[in-house]
Amino acid sequence: MIYKIIIFILIVLNIFLIFILNKKKIKNYFHKPKIKKIDITEAHEIFKLKEISKNLKGPKNDVIIKSFSISDSNNIVGMTSDKEAWIIASLSKISKNIFEFGTCSGKTTFIMALNANKDAKITSITLDPKDVIELSKKEQDNKVSFRNIKNESIYNKFLFSGESVEEKIKVIFQNSLNFDHKNFLGKMDLIFIDGGHTYSVVKNDSEKSFEMLNSNGIILWHDYVPGKRSAQDVVKYIHEISTEKKLYSIRGTSLVYYKNE
Ligand SMILES: C[S@@+](CC[C@H](N)C(=O)[O-])C[C@H]1O[C@@H](n2cnc3c(N)ncnc32)[C@H](O)[C@@H]1O
Question: Is the CB of 203 under 6 A from ligand 1?
Fold first, then answer.
């Protein structure tokens, strides 16, 4: 009898171990992305590689950018990865009117401004830390994302504050749910949606973005990560609109890409 119990315990332990080791694979199986994944070189011609030699291809000038990284010891919250920032920066080089939902520390805003032309205009909307107290969670919003909005709405000075490129940037301190976008209709070349990650805010920011986009403008969403709790509402909204809009998930990033054509 004792042997049977030991064997039973060993089997249970093995199953547990297999589960722990394959947790990510199992999670990915149940949370499959529903939109097509592409390499960035397929998304826009500026990312197409130039041939250097028979076995070496490299970036074209269009995607050589000015950038910086944030060290791990500088505990800045809510940022894009360096690869994501590179993609946004490259697209900023060919964009005159840029809009960002969610400034946070201003890492991405700064990088956009460093790369956009002199006459480019970047507008970024964000919550004033002092207004966070007035926020209310809507019924369809997920709790973790709502909590994150509060945790990320802590800056009223930004990484670009006092820098010369600040002249290209205008920050609007306002809840995007109350933002009147009528002066921006059909004007934007590039929109980066990275504000509140609750369903009500993502839907609001995206619907306004589609109306603000010009005829060949581009929208990028941040944090499309199926299976990640705090990204649940972003994923849900993206999947909902993917039946009508041509959306692509960019490999190696959490970006979703859309281009008006
Ligand atoms: C993830 S952070 C943005 C990170 C930033 N885009 C970057 O790449 O460094 C989210 C930002 O969205 C802002 N935000 C959240 N909900 C918002 C809302 N309803 N209206 C305006 N801004 C909002 C927060 O205040 C915070 O600054």
Answer: no
Two tokens at 225?
């990560």
217 Cβ closer than 6 Å to some ligand 1 atom: no
Domain ranges for the chain = 1-30, 33-259
CA dist 173 and 20 (Å) reads 44
Task: Give the nearest ligand 1 atom to 179 CA.
Answer: 20
In angstroms, the CA 200 to CA 209 distance is 14
Domain 33-259 is in which class? alpha beta
Could you give phi then psi for residue 226, rounded to 5 degrees? -55, 130
Q: pLDDT by residue (tens digit) across 170-228?
A: 999 999 999 999 999 999 999 999 999 999 999 999 999 999 999 999 999 999 999 99
The more confidently predicted of residues 260 and 9 is: 260
DSSP 120-138: -EEEEEE--GGGGGG----
Alpha helices in 94-231 (DSSP H): 107-115, 143-152, 199-212
pTM above 0.70, yes or no: yes
Measured CA to CA in angstroms, residue 190 lies from 94, 97, 213 at distances of 9, 7, 7
